């Protein structure tokens, strides 16, 4: 998280990953030891930084990400280019610390390395060298140079062995024959063929196959890792998310400022609407606008939420916590901010407009606004799961809300909506419908309005909401609020279900894609 400092990131991760059998002091001590091993002591109180703010360097971010994964001393650790962005000295120190840790804790480390220096290369026990989809070498790293030399590709003196291996088998820059009349095998192609055939018949290959057979014949058992309990994870994630939302201006603070400005404008435009003949329409317009404004503008915080979703995806796949823990912690941490951005702008618009002054009416008004903002947050969580790109997600979320808004019963009265799809599906699943009808029942309850210019005729609340707005009066306003609360829960449950379904569907989709790709390759070869 870009808003956290290095110290906060490592401390929160330690409390989430390490088991409850360890005390908090022991967890923090483990975190400090890990930070020292990766040489990040000087950057402990520096924010990580990201797309909108500067922070630690790319190399320090790489080391921090390694810190977060070696906290638990895992049995098996995958590192994707751990030396990228580091100079030769830093890469050597990082890899030597990881090597010592692996030897001390009995860890197996599998790393993809990018142009390692000779000192880093010597730290690896095994080497897997691939080219054009074939195995060039798989065995002890110390014997790789001898293998290349025995096949006519000796490593020149004073040259890094890893550079020599890559230069020998890299065919990206080989040119075709200048005459173009006859295809001539490239130098790298020839080297790859020689090395692949030589490795297949080598003793190194036989030893590797024998080791794999022995591993396959071994008795197998699941090795689990002790983690923190559900309550501990939820509390730590809630605290971390709360801090992130507080420091990220784009999450809620910018929205609050815009809401306050628009609410002031709205309050001045509809200032003291009174009880005249046009006041019913003015009240309904103001209620509809304030309800849709706070929900529609929720897409403004979508980019920040997408960043959170990326972190959630990585940490969940690494087994740090589950979907339910994330949903609960996100809901708990965001609720105070959603209350703030609903109550403050809502109060400004409510009292400037001159709606009903009783405190119970305002409390209901604020509760509906809060419910709508929480509901839209759940909707955008679902959109972020299906459409992870923030620009496409904003468009998708705005489109969904636009359709619901059109079928809320304000722009076209409910009885005039087309029956198929628009009324008997979208109208009843649109949360704007229940918010708007709750607003109408709350505002026009006990209200008497003038029905002509002289003020001799009056109109009661029942006649306004039934005849003018076609509100369903068979249930109270609290039922509408309860439906909104139920939709909040349903949207978050849908988020959990979609995550689970995608987890099951992705391997199957990848399998289908791989089979199709394999068939096309075979057809091309034929």
What does this structure look like?
This protein has 526 residues and is mainly alpha-helical. Helix 10 packs across helix 14, helix 12 runs parallel beside helix 15 (359-386) and helix 13 packs across helix 15 (359-386). It has a domain at 231-511. The protein has helices at 6-17, 24-37, 58-70, 88-105, 118-121, 144-150, 161-169, 187-200, 203-217, 230-247, 249-269, 279-296, 302-317, 323-353, 359-386, 390-406, 419-429, 431-444, 461-468, 477-525; strands spanning 76-80, 108-112, 126-131, 134-140, 449-450, 458-459.
Radius of gyration: 32 Å
Mean pLDDT: 83
Q: What is the distance, rounded to the nearest whole angstrom, between the alpha carbons of the first and last residues?
A: 50 Å
Global morphology: elongated
Beta-strand residue percentage: 5-15%
Largest sheet properties: 2 strands, parallel
Instruction: Indicate the low-confidence ranges by residue numbers.
Output: 177-183, 521-526
Strand order of the largest sheet: 1-2
Total strands: 6
Helix share of residues? 55-70%
SSE run: HHHEHEHEEHHHHHHHHHHHHHEEHH
Output the number of helix runs: 20
Structural class: mainly alpha
């Amino acid at each position: 998280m870009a808003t956290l400092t290095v110290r906060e990131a490592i401390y929160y991760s330690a409390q989430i990953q390490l088991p409850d059998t360890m005390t908090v002091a022991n967890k923090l001590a483990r975190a400090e030891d890990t930070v020292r091993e990766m040489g990040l002591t000087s950057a402990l109180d520096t924010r990580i930084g990201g797309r909108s703010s500067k922070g630690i360097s790319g190399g320090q971010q790489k080391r921090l990400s390694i810190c977060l994964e070696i906290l638990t001393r895992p049995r098996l650790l995958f590192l994707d280019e751990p030396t990228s962005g580091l100079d030769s000295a830093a890469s050597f120190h990082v890899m030597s610390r990881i090597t010592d840790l692996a030897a001390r804790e009995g860890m197996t480390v599998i790393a993809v390395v990018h142009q390692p220096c000779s000192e880093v290369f010597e730290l690896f026990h095994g080497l897997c060298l691939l080219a054009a989809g074939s195995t060039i070498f798989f065995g002890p790293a110390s014997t790789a140079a001898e293998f290349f030399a025995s096949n006519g590709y000796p490593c020149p003196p004073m040259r890094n062995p890893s550079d020599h291996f890559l230069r020998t088998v890299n065919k990206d820059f080989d040119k075709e024959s200048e005459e173009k009349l006859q295809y001539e095998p490239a130098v790298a192609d020839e080297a790859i063929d020689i090395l692949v055939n030589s490795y297949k018949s080598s003793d190194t290959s036989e030893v590797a196959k024998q080791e794999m057979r022995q591993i396959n014949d071994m008795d197998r058992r699941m090795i689990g890792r002790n983690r923190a309990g559900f309550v501990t994870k939820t509390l730590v994630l809630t605290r971390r998310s709360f801090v992130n939302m507080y420091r990220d201006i784009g999450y809620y603070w910018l929205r609050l400022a815009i809401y306050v400005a628009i609410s002031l404008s709205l309050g001045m435009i509809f200032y003291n609407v009174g009880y005249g003949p046009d006041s019913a329409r003015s009240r309904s317009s103001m209620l509809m606008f304030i309800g849709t404004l706070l929900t529609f503008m929720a897409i403004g915080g979508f980019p920040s939420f997408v960043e959170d979703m990326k972190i959630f995806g990585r940490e969940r796949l690494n087994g740090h916590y589950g979907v339910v823990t994330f949903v609960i912690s996100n809901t708990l941490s965001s609720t105070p901010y959603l209350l703030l951005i609903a109550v403050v702008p809502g109060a400004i618009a409510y009292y400037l407009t001159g709606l009903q002054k009783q405190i119970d009416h305002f409390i209901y008004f604020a509760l509906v606004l809060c419910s709508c903002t929480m509901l839209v947050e759940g909707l955008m969580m679902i959109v972020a799961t299906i459409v992870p790109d923030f620009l496409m997600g904003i468009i998708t979320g705005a489109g969904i809300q636009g359709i619901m808004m059109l079928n809320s019963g304000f722009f076209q009265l409910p009885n005039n909506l087309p029956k198929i799809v628009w009324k008997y599906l979208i109208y009843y699943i649109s949360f704007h419908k229940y918010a708007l009808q709750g607003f109408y029942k709350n505002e026009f309850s006990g209200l008497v309005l003038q029905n002509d210019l002289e003020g001799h005729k009056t109109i009661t609340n029942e006649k306004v909401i039934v005849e003018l707005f076609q509100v369903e009066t068979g249930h109270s306003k609290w039922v509408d609020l309860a439906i909104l609360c139920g939709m909040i829960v349903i949207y978050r449950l849908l988020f959990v279900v979609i995550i689970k379904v995608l987890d099951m569907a992705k391997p199957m989709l990848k399998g289908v894609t791989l089979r199709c790709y394999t068939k096309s390759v075979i057809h091309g070869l034929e």
